[in-house]
Amino acid sequence: ETGVTQTPRHLVMGMTNKKSLKCEQHLGHNAMYWYKQSAKKPLELMFVYSLEERVENNSVPSRFSPECPNSSHLFLHLHTLQPEDSALYLCASSQDRAHGYTFGSGTRLTVV
Amino acid sequence: KQEVTQIPAALSVPEGENLVLNCSFTDSAIYNLQWFRQDPGKGLTSLLLIQSSQREQTSGRLNASLDKSSGRSTLYIAASQPGDSATYLCAVSFNAGNMLTFGGGTRLMVKP
Q1: Could you read off the pLDDT of B65-99 as tens digits, one per residue?
Q2: Which of A11, A29, A44, A96 is 20 to 30 Å from A55 at the Cα level?
Q3: A 50-89 residues inside an 8 A Cβ radius of B
Q4: Are the CB atoms for B23 and B4 separated by under 8 Å?
Q5: Which one of B41, B46, B102 has the shortest CB-CB distance to A43?
Q6: Partner A contacted by B57 (CB < 8 A)
Q7: Do B43 and A6 count as a contact with CB atoms less than 8 A apart?
Q8: Does B87 touch chain A (CB under 8 A)?
Q9: Which residues are within 8 A (CB) of A62 and not within 5 positions of it... i.e. 6 or more apart?
Q10: How crowded is the C-beta side of A7, counted as CA atoms within 13 Å?
Q11: What's the CA gap between B15 and B84, in Å, rounded?
């Protein structure tokens, strides 16, 4: 266990469903991130929250909606996804540049 | 555009060999560089973090070097073992916001 916990581990959803991914960190970090990992592509940064404020939205479609209610929790709300959104969604946290990132185990999402 | 490239994309070696994985980046003005390991279907495990002011970092059989002027980093693995088989990812922080840009990874197979 890295200290960053993601749930669920696996999710299968239809294109008309609404679901949420959850990330929780117990490391006292002040920044949290969502990354998408698709087959044969480098990890892509989706969203960044620093001190609970969104500081980066990397041209992500509006069908992905992040939420950061406090410094320990991060959500990714999903609705009307497409099959090409199927991927491994990874959450990470960091304190500052001196200490690097800590990643969770990811949520494997399949859109059918 | 700031990019990170890893070569080779895949590598297969016999057990016991020393090996070098390469990472190159397009902008020498980096803040830090981090090497990760990813097992199939899993999250990322941090291996080594090198700050821009450092030349190398070591952890056990792993040694990572950084040459900002040439835009290169190498990950050296000594006396490789089958348990080292995984994908190794290089990630660079190009900005003060500590957002990481990832390379495509090197998939390593160490054969017994």
Answers
A1: 999 999 999 999 999 999 999 999 999 998 766 78
A2: A11
A3: 50, 55-56, 88
A4: yes
A5: B102
A6: no
A7: yes
A8: no
A9: none
A10: 4
A11: 10
